[in-house]
Write a structure and sequence with these properties.
403 residues, alpha/beta, Tyrosyl-Transfer RNA Synthetase, Structural Genomics Hypothetical 15.5 Kd Protein In mrcA-pckA Intergenic Region, Chain A, 3 domains, six-stranded mixed β-sheet, five-stranded mixed β-sheet, 17 helices
């Protein structure tokens, strides 16, 4: 494929969804030279599903693909055994190899919703880390200093607060940096929270006598449906890219108005001019923000499902939310006859991602059983001959039936 060097397309590549380029002048020179660049993104399979927050980097990778460059997606099956300490106030729980492999199985299919997999080089960092001897690890560690590692904000905060920093956590930036060596990265993408890790890659390349990769930091950070915290499965404020159309539509409609414009710019392909026109119309009161958000929900559902499914999801949302009707065609969840904890039911129905999220949702009064709010996290649901309707929030319904 021919490398595209059109200046307008390069400008677009380096503007939307981009917070900073390091070093921008060097990156522009690389892009204008007409050489096929190797563009790196590493993802750790610490959970089975990707959400809209992950889609931002994947969309930027697709833009590089469209300009003819080689995208290299690294599945961090070894780095995820440590867990990225970025932004964490305590040591992350260690995942087992079995958990990592189970999560990783789902990633490639999900990534294919955005990237052209035929043009994507997929690598696993176990390819090199599994072959390293301990003396190799020592030699690599000798390229880094403890002083440099503890400069990073999250480690500095832990030290200040007296929290533990475990030795294996110090290895994470080193491992991410070494990934860049092994795949000969010209450019690495990541969120602004990945600054330390990505710049460590540049440092290691320089120390090994190689050309330094450019760094493209994406942003702003996408907040979750709560409008406050970064989108995260652990916080339950995420919108999964494989979620059912109706759930995806409803979650988008729950995003606070103030966060809506970042969602348009970061997670959709709607031209920026149209986004700014929608925003101006809302600010001048010539358009209801609810209608702009409905446009956002349709754009996102269409992207991951289809226009027809987006229309159907919108119809169900209107009937459920605006007209206060329970949908006639709600999803059914088959359970064994007998007693089930309500939290387990929510998990089985995929209305929550964890038992912890289920407990919080119930205790906050966000669950109804047959139209009645249930706020007891240990309540028992008796599944028998009569169907039971479970409602999460205002828009999500499932009908329980027996297997």
């Amino acid at each position: 494929m021919k490398i595209v060097t059109d200046q307008h397309k390069i400008d677009a590549l380096l503007s939307r969804r981009v917070a900073e380029a390091v070093v921008e002048k060097d990156l522009r020179a690389k892009l204008a030279a007409g050489k096929r660049l190797r563009i790196k993104l590493g993802v750790d399979p610490t959970a089975p599903d990707l959400h809209l927050g992950h889609s931002i980097a994947l969309k930027k990778l697709r833009e590089f693909q469209e300009l003819g460059h080689q995208v290299v997606l690294i599945i961090g099956d070894y780095t995820s055994l440590i867990g990225d300490p970025t932004g964490k106030s305590k040591t992350r729980p260690t995942l087992s190899e079995k958990e990592v492999k189970a999560n990783a199985k789902t990633y490639i299919a999900q990534v294919g919703k955005i990237l052209d997999l035929k043009k994507t080089e997929i690598r696993w960092n176990s390819e090199w880390f599994a072959k390293m001897r301990f003396r190799d690890v020592i030699a690599l560690a000798g390229k880094f200093t403890v002083a440099r590692m503890i400069e990073r904000d999250d480690f500095a905060e832990r030290l200040k607060g007296g929290a533990d920093i475990h030795m294996h956590e110090l290895l994470y930036p080193m491992m991410q940096a070494y990934d860049s060596i092994m795949i000969e990265a010209d450019v690495e993408l990541g969120g602004t929270d990945q600054r330390f890790n990505i710049l460590a890659g540049r440092d290691l390349q320089r120390k090994m006598g190689l050309a330094e990769q450019s760094a493209l930091f994406l942003g702003p950070t996408l907040v979750g449906t709560d409008g406050v915290n970064k989108m995260s499965k652990s916080l339950g404020n995420y919108i999964g890219i494989t979620e059912a159309p109706e759930m995806m539509y409803g979650k988008v409609m729950s995003v606070p108005d103030a966060a809506m414009w970042d969602y348009f710019l970061l997670t959709t392909d709607l031209p920026e001019k149209e986004v700014y026109a929608l925003r101006e119309a809302c600010e001048q009161a010539s358009m209801n923000p609810r209608d702009a958000k409905a446009r956002l929900a349709r754009e996102i559902v269409t992207m991951y499902h289809s226009a027809a499914k987006a229309d159907a999801a919108e119809r169900q949302f209107v009937a459920t939310f605006r007209e206060k009707q329970a949908p006639a065609d709600m999803a059914e969840v088959a359970l064994k006859r007998g007693s089930h904890l309500l939290g387990d039911v929510l998990l089985a129905a995929k209305l929550v991602a964890s038992k912890g999220e289920a407990r919080r949702l119930i205790e906050q009064g966000g669950v109804k059983v047959n139209g009645e709010v249930v706020a007891d996290a240990v309540v028992i649901i008796e599944v028998g001959d009569q169907p039971i309707v479970i409602q999460k929030g205002k828009r999500h319904f499932v009908r329980l039936v027996t297997k």
